[in-house]
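#lab-general

N.A. 3:47 PM
ok so I finally got the sequence cleaned up, no stray characters, all 148 residues accounted for. can someone with queue access submit it? mine expired

B.Y. 3:52 PM
send it over

N.A. 3:53 PM
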Amino acid sequence: MKRKTSAGARAVDAYLARIPVDKRAALQDLRRIILSVVPSAEETISYGMPAVRKNGVLVYYAAFQDHCSFFPGSVRVLRKFAAELTPFAAGKGTLRFTPQRPLPPLLVKRIVKERIRENEAKTSHRGGREKPSSKQTRGHPSSRQGSS
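B.Y. 4:20 PM
back already:
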């Protein structure tokens, strides 16, 4: 079944079209892995980078000058997978990888599944309501930019 192209998915396509080919391929692979776990998710651009939403933001990813980053958006998930994430840890909430050294696909799938469980639990505690979008990413590493 062909995935319906939303405005968010088109915005992510545009983001990916602007980055260097090697990083584009790495992020397209990451995107495909994420969406294989949660095909009903909404893609969007948030904080200037691609994000995947299902009952709130699940994960973010982005390309930078000398690496790519994956942002699981959960300290609890980072702790749960800490041993496996050590080679990629680059700071609070940030996993760095390169096209030559990508994140393991099975690990990405496990992280996304855990984030889905977290968001479903949060949503069920609010009676099925999603958290307002302005607060969904509180604590996200990029939300602290300019606060030095």
